[in-house]
Request: fold
Amino acid sequence: MSDLALPAIGLGTSGMTGDECVESVRAALETGYRHIDTAQMYDNEPAVGAGIRLADVDREDVVLASKVHPENLAYEDAKRTAEESLVRLGVDRLDMLYVHWPTNAYEAEETLRAMDELHDAGVTRHVCVSNFTPELLDEARDILDADIAANQVECHPLLPQDELRADAAEDGHTLVGYAPLGQGKIFDVPELQQVAERHSTSPAAVCIAWAIRKDALVPIPKASTEEHLEANVAASRLELTDEDMATIDGIEEQRRLIDPDRAAWNQ
Ligand SMILES: NC(=O)c1ccc[n+]([C@@H]2O[C@H](COP(=O)([O-])OP(=O)(O)OC[C@H]3O[C@@H](n4cnc5c(N)ncnc54)[C@H](OP(=O)(O)O)[C@@H]3O)[C@@H](O)[C@H]2O)c1
Reply:
């Protein structure tokens, strides 16, 4: 069982680079966010690191997560590129290091041995995985010495991931939910609009409040404007009723926005 304790909401940074990313990370930390999610793939680790240094917040108080690119998951590459992530971020350790997607160069034994060694060497405080199914989680648990601290997967009201949340709760890790706002494409779902109207708020706020009420789930919405950063923190304080939760959990439509077939990252 992992001892990782995450705040109720984190900040996703994919799609943000350069000054926009620096400013978003700085503003997020000064708004109260303490969990920042990046990845080798996002090409923004230097900007994320600069945002953390600019913010009036102690590095020790920030949970910083990065992910090893699927093409870098061979044993030597994973170890070398994780160290390169530290240099790009300008930090001496990560709090969470993920296997980004178990594809391409992923070989369970080799990749996870590298993750254990990165953990033992203090490159990361916690070993994490992303886009792992229950079967892949079982395999990883058998191989790893370290506990899995988090599994990061797509999760929002149209993809509630009940099985993976139950696995997380039982195993004592966190399910970190990506695309918690459905990338802005699910706000027209009538049940989300209905609950939003009941609370005089937005469907975006409802998505976040729904995720926070779910066991073992931490959403990491991406936000690049101060208005969205602040709205999403405010949403983390919105209390949905049992009736609201039942309305949302009754949504019949299921929608996955990130196609698992894209997982080979060959494009
Ligand atoms: N592990 C993986 O394989 C994986 C895959 C995908 C994503 N992720 C992680 O998860 C994070 C979040 O996912 P995502 O970026 O794909 O989608 P998302 O967080 O569901 O949606 C982001 C979109 O919602 C908008 N938004 C934010 N707050 C809003 C609000 N209060 N009202 C209305 N719109 C709002 C953002 O606009 P603005 O930018 O204009 O604020 C942006 O267009 C990523 O940034 C990344 O860190 C991980």
